[in-house]
Design goal:
- By secondary structure, this protein is an alpha/beta fold.
- The protein folds into 3 domains: about 5-75, no CATH class; about 85-130; about 160-260, Nucleotidyltransferase, domain 5.
- It contains 11 helices and 5 strands; from the N terminus they run H-H-H-H-H-H-H-H-E-E-E-H-E-H-E-H.
- The protein has a 5-stranded mixed beta sheet, sandwiched between helices.
């Protein structure tokens, strides 16, 4: 064996030792992380606790542990701050505004505080807003119950079944208005046509109460017919509400024909 071969062999031995040490360090690091981390630590405070545990218990180096956990050494050595004390004025201002305006979102609160002259930017306000859990819950879409198709039975008597429906149109000047049409299906009599630019549930109740009382009201899924005022009034008067299926206008054919005549 020549001298060059011996030199090459020693080089291979040094490389092998280096790879063994690297493998040992990675194995130790992997075992330590499996022992500590059950889920991914996202916040710096949680990562700092993991690094401290691995350094004190497993004997790993700070640089090695910070690299494995994904935490900067400057962040690890930086002293902890009490954000509740440093942001006390922001917390007081935000809490007062949220209590007074319960349905305001973040950007409305941020604009209001900046208009009031507070020097905080939106990033600092957002941090406090999220830490104090002031986020509003999203409004979910109200789902309508399943409607059963009901036969269009005609009782040839007055004040048994009424049909109620809305129509809308536009004036020459561009302003929209609506009409509330009430039809007695038993005798095909138009009981009322209420016209106005706004017809809330209270107005609907007043018109129905003025015309008398019926046993059944046939109607569609308009938002005025789901108002608490309208439903409670029908329950007090003992009136049955028969909602038609969604987008099934043939189930209220009598009031549709009346609307066509009204147009």
């Amino acid at each position: 064996m020549e001298a060059s071969d011996i030199k090459r062999l020693k080089k291979f031995e040094h490389e092998n030792d280096r790879l063994k040490r690297m493998y040992g360090d990675l194995s130790l690091e992997n075992a330590a992380l499996k022992e500590v981390i059950t889920k991914k630590a996202l916040r710096p405070a949680e990562r700092r606790e993991v690094v401290t545990h691995l350094v004190m218990v497993r004997g790993l180096q700070v640089q090695q542990t910070c690299r494995a956990v994904g935490l900067g050494r400057a962040t690890y050595y930086r002293p902890l701050m009490d954000w509740a004390r440093s942001d006390a004025s922001v917390i007081i201002a935000l809490t007062t505004l949220v209590v007074a305006k319960g349905r305001w979102g973040f950007w409305q609160c941020c604009d209001r505080l900046q208009l009031d002259g507070h020097p905080w930017n939106h990033k600092r306000l957002w941090c406090v807003y999220c830490r104090r859990r002031m986020n509003l819950t999203r409004r979910t879409k109200k789902r309508l119950p399943i409607r059963r198709r009901q036969p269009l039975v005609v009782v040839p008597q007055p004040n048994v079944v009424w049909a109620v429906d809305f129509m809308s149109d536009t004036l020459y000047g561009g302003r929209r208005f609506g009409t509330l049409n009430i039809l007695d299906e038993g005798v095909r009599e138009g009981l009322a046509i209420e016209v106005d630019t706004s017809l809330p549930a209270e107005r609907v109740v007043r018109v129905l109460a003025w015309r008398g009382q019926t046993q059944v009201i046939r109607l569609d899924t308009g938002q005025e017919f789901f108002a608490e005022r309208f439903i409670s009034w029908c329950a007090e008067e003992g009136i049955e509400l028969r909602y038609i299926q969604l987008r099934e206008s043939d189930q209220k054919a009598f009031i549709e024909g009346y609307n066509r005549t009204d147009r």
